[in-house]
Amino acid sequence: MNKGISIIIPLFNEAEGIPVLVKSLNDFFENKHETSIEIIFVNDGSTDDSFNILQKQKFVNYSVQLISFSKNFGSHAALRAGILYAKMEFITFMYADLQDPLELIPLMYEKAITGFDIVWANRNETQNSLFETLFSRAYAKLMQRFAFSNFPEKGFDIVFFNGKLKKELDNNIESNSNIFLQILGMGFSQTNVLYNKKERKIGKSKWTISKKIKMLIDSFVAFSYAPIRLVSIVGFLFFIFGIIWTVYIVSRKLIFNDLETGWPMLTSILLLGFGITNIGLGIIAEYLWRTLDASRKRPVFIIDEVIDLKNDN
Description:
Layout (H helix, E strand, L loop, with lengths): L1 E10 L6 H11 L8 E7 L6 H6 L7 E7 L5 H11 L2 E6 L10 H9 L5 E8 L4 H17 L9 E7 H9 L7 H6 L5 E7 L12 H15 L2 H30 L7 H34 L6 E7 L4
Parallel strand pairs: 1-2, 1-4, 2-3, 5-7
Antiparallel strand pairs: 3-8, 4-6, 5-6
């Protein structure tokens, strides 16, 4: 494995921002020759002209790989493909919107070469909307409580790691999973740096509500037994409540004989009971579906083309 850093950048319909992205990369690495840099762009099934625009760019002071998917498989699949094709000793992620500053790369590199296997870039401040902030905080609290106690409160989007992690990730390419949580759960020596996330200046975010919900479900189903435990606890509580309620109404009937039966109470019980049952079946179905999905052994991503682009040093 070559000494240096592989930087993986997933792209999905980023045609408008690609020239700015490449110029920023060229300017940043213009005078940084002490470490070899490889940029891996992963075209995640873009439906605009991102792929063609990227091929026409001039790249300076770093080598370039362009990986193109056959369709949109998602950003985490794109990151996994980039890791698989990475040639350098260290690997990290960046994104086309440049909300995460490129200055993070040397900061994380300096931490990594001191002996840490994993370096996290933890968000200190963000420019997110109120909804995004509340969602992120709620997600972090849930992950801390039910999956990883060391999950950072304000989350992370960037991680820097070495070949030890690459080997494990290449041998365990998971579908319907969260690559960051997979790395977080591996152990190894870890540290972090803090940074302020910038506001997106070009294009629109592809991080939609539906994708956030899927991430939330994937995170819990893939990395926590909490949902199944919740079903068991709720079922147990309702069983106890049912016994107590039965004893109460039987005793009331025998002692006071003042309880009247009717369809409202029966309907409430049925709705509550079937509601809890359906929630439990839904959670169990999520696990069964992922078991079926894993047993099929379908590829997490399909690569249509890989291109090595020359730089203009």
